[in-house]
């Protein structure tokens, strides 16, 4: 299921004429600047736009795209997923949102939470 969500996300967030994910599309959906997105995923701001940084950005963006794709699948669309990602506290994480947890390097925890919810286990 995670692979399916990622494939959908890759299709939605891909860069035109490229096999890499688009930082611009992700930042637009989330309503954040490129600098804020760079900080969130742990890369330098100029790495987002450098051709030589495409592979590194792709790797760093992958967990965010997987989360947004899975949340979008569950919520019905990408906009709702983005709102949830930025604003909805995740139970058991002291009021932290998916955005907060990703910024702390805990994207895997967000993905595990979404998998549990999708499986019918509510935290």
UniProtKB/TrEMBL annotation:
InterPro entries: Xre-like_HTH, Xre/MbcA/ParS-like_toxin-bd. Residues 21-62 form the Antitoxin Xre-like helix-turn-helix domain. This is Antitoxin Xre/MbcA/ParS toxin-binding domain-containing protein. Coiled coil: none annotated. Residues 71-120 form the Antitoxin Xre/MbcA/ParS-like toxin-binding domain. The lineage of its organism: Bacteria, Pseudomonadati, Pseudomonadota, Alphaproteobacteria, Hyphomicrobiales. It comes from the Bacteria.
């Amino acid at each position: 299921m995670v692979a399916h969500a990622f494939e959908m996300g890759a299709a939605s967030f891909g860069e035109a004429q490229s096999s890499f994910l688009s930082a611009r599309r992700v930042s637009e959906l989330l309503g954040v600047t490129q600098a804020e997105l760079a900080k969130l995923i742990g890369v330098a701001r100029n790495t987002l736009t450098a051709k030589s940084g495409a592979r590194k950005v792709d790797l760093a963006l992958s967990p965010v795209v997987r989360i947004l794709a899975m949340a979008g699948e569950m919520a019905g669309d990408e906009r709702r997923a983005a709102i949830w990602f930025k604003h909805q506290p995740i139970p058991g994480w002291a009021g932290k949102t998916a955005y907060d947890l990703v910024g702390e390097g805990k994207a895997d925890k967000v993905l595990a939470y979404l998998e549990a919810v999708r499986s019918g286990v509510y935290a």
